[in-house]
Write a structure and sequence with these properties.
The chain is α/β, with parallel strands linked by helices and 493 residues long. It has 2 domains: 277 residues, 3-Layer(aba) Sandwich (Aldehyde Dehydrogenase, Chain A, domain 1), CATH 3.40.605; 188 residues, 3-Layer(aba) Sandwich (Aldehyde Dehydrogenase, Chain A, domain 2). It contains 14 helices and 21 strands. The strands form 5 sheets. It has a 7-stranded mixed β-sheet, with helices on both faces. A 6-stranded mixed β-sheet has the order 10-9-8-11-12-20, with helices on both faces. Helix 5 links the parallel strand 8 and strand 9. It is globular and about 75 Å long. The termini are far apart.
């Protein structure tokens, strides 16, 4: 099939635009394509994107392997310049990229721009890491010997990213991989290829050599399987569902590649009787409903002590009623659409299950529109028990539940009673309880008097228990995954 791919600029998107994989510096077409639609208006087609098959993925892996030696030896100052330039280009095109992101994923436009600017910050941060890849020299306990401990690239990295942060999550995986001298085969979620295509275009424009970054778009069942069974792939970093993440982990044991997996959360936000309820309700709305609740750090379980339960719930309902749901790019909209019909159906099933199990649902109704967008009013489920389905499964939508407890001790026990452990929050004016919670909350990230969602680009990201597997992401911690340790001895005698 001979078709000319379109550039990534948003003016070039439309029903007749086709976008191809990037392999070894070439745009490689495909016989099969997926149609990328706007969830605010499914009749709005953003473009048709290539669907790679196993042979195409194998070609991309070989291209990354062939480019590996030169990129590993690429001067660090030049590597710095490429990543720094990429950060500048992303920031310069923030409005264009945010519009594209909001159009294909449904994230409210202001949040979309924030995500794009975060991606720019990540690339500029890891540009700096290219020249801070320090080692250690230490005297041996044996006379005359000196030990050198350094960090070297792992090799070919398979990167598999989700649809909910289609530019920030690729950025925080691709940037450190490249900074530390690895080459990449990048597979974005099939729902959001446009942001991935635009990001790879920017990296090419910034000067990245051919083959260092390869983009393969299409179904996870095909591309993921090819990445996790190839003898040429040295590591895989994955963010997505628990089921797929566990299959990647299992494959890593069978095929002996290193793996990093982020697999979601069921994050608690505790509200104690001494809390600033106004601030707590604002944080709950932010954590539970912004980004349409489609983030792994969402505040999906609101655990409230009985002395302020009714007041807090009433306040929360008032704030929910003021939220405007609609087209992600429209003025005044706080919450955009659910990402797809499939995800919307899942959200509705969980809401109905919550009713069946005795919960009282406020909101959660479909919102009709002229465009047929996937709009869902935020839902609050009260009167729930810790073991209810709504408090066990990750819904991944604008749905939060409330669990009433007697005191802090019960709140902590309920907060920790989950297979996940990504983020946890507490609202209290007590130094005693906040200090205790920071120590005993079984989560990788703990927030005191702040929303459970939201982590700076220069700090590590990751959870415990079923939420995460392998080294942390982001910041200085990223080096642990994207490099291998080497110890060398020199006999100075």
């Amino acid at each position: 099939m001979t078709q000319t791919p379109q550039p990534a600029g948003t003016a070039q998107h439309g029903p007749d635009a086709v976008f191809d994989n990037l392999i070894g510096g070439r745009r490689v077409p495909s016989d099969e394509r997926s149609t990328n639609r706007n969830p605010s208006d499914p009749s709005d087609v953003i473009g048709r994107y290539a669907r790679a098959d196993a042979a195409t993925v194998a070609e991309a892996i070989t291209a990354a392997a062939d480019a590996g030696a030169d990129w590993a030896d690429f001067p660090s100052q030049q590597r710095f310049a490429i990543l720094d330039r990429a950060g500048d280009l992303i920031a310069e095109r923030a409005d264009e990229l945010a519009d594209l992101l909001a159009r294909e994923e449904g994230k409210q436009l202001g949040e979309a721009k924030g995500e794009v600017l975060r991606a720019a910050q990540i690339f500029k941060f890891f540009a700096g890491e290219t020249i801070r890849n320090t080692g250690e020299i230490i005297d041996s306990v044996r006379p005359g010997l000196v030990a050198e401990m350094t960090h070297e690239p792992v090799g070919v990295i398979g990167i598999i990213t989700p649809w909910n942060f289609p530019i920030a999550i690729p950025a925080w995986k691709i940037a450190p991989a490249l900074a530390f001298g690895n080459t990449v085969v990048f597979k974005p979620a099939e729902l959001v290829p446009a942001s991935a295509y635009a990001l790879t275009d920017i990296l090419v424009e910034a000067g990245l050599p051919a083959g260092v970054l390869n983009l393969v778009m299409g179904p996870g069942s095909v591309i993921g399987g090819a990445l996790t069974t190839s003898a040429q792939v040295d590591a895989v970093t994955f963010t997505g569902s628990v089921g797929v993440g566990r299959s990647v982990i299992a494959s890593s044991a069978a095929h002996q590649f290193r793996v990093q997996a982020e697999m979601g959360g069921k994050n608690p936000l505790i509200v104690l009787g001494d809390a600033d309820l106004e601030a707590a309700a604002d944080a709950a709305v932010n954590g539970a409903f912004f980004s349409t609740g489609q983030r792994c750090t969402a505040s999906s379980r609101l655990i409230v002590t009985a002395d302020v339960h009714d007041e807090f719930v009433a306040l929360l309902k008032d704030k929910m009623a003021a939220l405007i749901v609609g087209d992600a790019r429209a003025d005044g909209v706080a919450i955009g659409p659910v990402v797809s019909q499939t995800q919307l159906d899942q959200d509705l099933r969980y809401i109905e299950t919550a009713r069946t199990e005795g919960g009282e649902v406020t909101g959660g109704e479909l919102i009709e529109s002229d465009t047929g967008g996937y709009f869902l009013a935020p839902a609050l489920v009260t009167g729930t028990k810790p073991g209810d389905t709504i408090n066990v499964d990750e819904v991944f939508g604008p749905v939060a539940s409330v669990i009433e407890v007697a005191d802090y001790e019960e709140a902590l026990a309920v907060a920790n009673d989950t297979e996940f452990g990504l983020s946890a929050g507490i609202f209290t004016s007590s130094l005693k309880y906040s200090s205790h919670f920071k120590r005993y909350a079984q989560a990788g990230m703990v927030m005191v008097n702040a929303p459970t969602a939201g982590v700076d680009y220069h700090v590590s990201f990751g959870g415990r228990k079923g939420s995460s597997y392998g080294p942390r992401e982001q910041a200085r911690a990223a080096r642990e995954f994207y490099t291998v340790h080497k110890t060398a001895y020199v006999n100075a005698g």
